[in-house]
Amino acid sequence: MSHLRPELCNWEARRCEAPSQMRSSPHLCFFRNCEQEPPHMRLNDRICDHCPTQCYFANVKKSSQLRRLHGPAYDRNCDESLAKAEPTGWWHMLDQKENALQIRAPTSKPPFTLGDIKKAIPPHCFHRSLIRSLSYLIQDFILVSIFYYISTTFFHFIPSPYSYVAWVSYWIVQGLVFSAIFVIAHECGHNAFSDYQWVNDTVGFILHSALLVPYFSWKNGHRRHHSNTGSLERDNFFVPRLKTELKWYYKYLNNPLGQVVTLAFTIILGEPLHLAFNVFGKPSDLFACDHFDPYAPIYNDRERKQIYISNADVIAATYVLYRLALAQGLPWLICFYGVPLLIAKNLYILVTFLHHAHPSLPHYDSSEWDWLRGALATVDRDNGVLVNKVSHHIADTHVVHHLFPAIPHYHAVEATRAIKPLLGEYYQFDDTPVHKAIWRDFKKCIYVEKDEGSPDKGVFWYKNKF
Predict the structure, then answer these.
(1) How far apart, in whole angstroms, are the C-alpha atoms of residue 105 and residue 101?
(2) How does pLDDT run across 381-421, given as a tens digit for each residue?
(3) How do strand 447-449 and strand 459-463 relate by DSSP bridges?
(4) The whole model's pTM is what?
(5) For the chain, which has fewer Cβ within 10 Å, the N-terminal or C-terminal residue?
(6) From CA 357, how far away is CA 438, in angstroms rounded?
């Protein structure tokens, strides 16, 4: 964990050299009163009740829970664990790879209800302000305009090869802002933009069209995802395959080269293929759930007219871009709009993948699934202060978003802090750097199956062995 400060604690002396600092911050505290603990104290006796939202050992008071968290290390004493640790310090016991692969989310029925979680959140977090939401949208438009102005005004003065660096930088930052606009458009689909349905649909319709996404098709399909998260049978986005459902060629792609090709294909073409063929849905829904088809099974009779409207608007937006290409030239359109849009769509697929494909997250069949456990089967990520802020905290507040999707993004951070103590070990967070997380999770999360001999017959975990 990047927040831990190994220099503050001396495990050889079994005492904290700066105990007041360790206890003063939930990011620094690893074990409460660690300077008082005897050398022989076992891992299952080391309970941190000071920082229940940050410590991996938080609220773990049963040996069975510790066995699940630490496996064979559960019943070893501290000396034995330290003997196997890296010589540079104890913090390697919590290295990011082990956290991700050994610590599984709990699958038992939570000791709290959705109502309990709602009571823990300050009431004002549920307030949606049209003025404030518009201010964030205007802020994004200003950033788009600034980057466009810089590129059109100064880039032609930059000599080669530095001009290529300038263009790549423009595409990345503009793509990030485009993705931030999509986050606000996404909030419109959840009625988190304002208290007025017609405002939400109007703004969402315009923004989605500008990003070449059919608004009502996406809104209605995405609602199904939120209603069935974690369900192997009813979810429709990033639904993992059972091992028996994998195509014959998967085992030949389970190597570095195959994984790179598959990852690139998923990120670059994932969004249009999902809209057109539902590639991230259930295998039985492939080609049967075209988001552009008003009679696809993901829509009801009331929604079919909305799908026609969304399709017409995407066609109209495409025609506008065609006219723009005729006026300004196709290279202009690709450089200033096409590449940033592609990056924004790639980020959308990437962020969603990282939220729902993680070795610690369970999936359920109909015998085990319920809405609350499914909604908790997602993970928050930390992309750094700057990226989190620019992207309207879509990555680091995803758990609370699945619990209460109508909470606007500007209240989501506070709401997340409020629910962490209540959720305890049911709250999942991973601060692994994004580039490492992408590669790790894409390698580890190939299919799901039950644990052999597990009493939880309807619980499935990500695996990658063929």
Answers:
(1) 11
(2) 999 999 999 999 999 999 999 999 999 999 999 999 999 99
(3) antiparallel
(4) 0.77
(5) C
(6) 10
Phi, psi angles (nearest 5°) of residue 303: -90, -10
Quote the CA–CA distance of 28 and 435 in Å, as a whole number. 25
Residue with tokens 């956290």: 99
Interior CA angle at 373 toward 390 and 388, to 5°? 10
The strand pair at 447-449 and 15-16 is best described as unpaired
Distances in whole angstroms, Cα of residue 78 to Cα of each of 40, 65, 459: 6, 18, 32
d(CA 232, CA 230): 6
Length of the chain: 466
Q: Residue 278 in 3-state DSSP?
A: coil
Alpha-carbon span 285 to 283, nearest angstrom? 5
What are the C-alpha distances in Å from 437 to residues 338, 354, 394, 444? 27, 8, 16, 10
Task: Tell me the C-alpha distance between 463 and 466, whole Å.
Answer: 9
Could you give the 3-state DSSP secondary structure of residue 24? helix
pLDDT level of residue 323 (50, 70, 90 thresholds): very high
8 Å CB contact between 256 and 389: no
Identify which of 3, 1, 28 has the alpha carbon closest to the alpha carbon of residue 17: 28
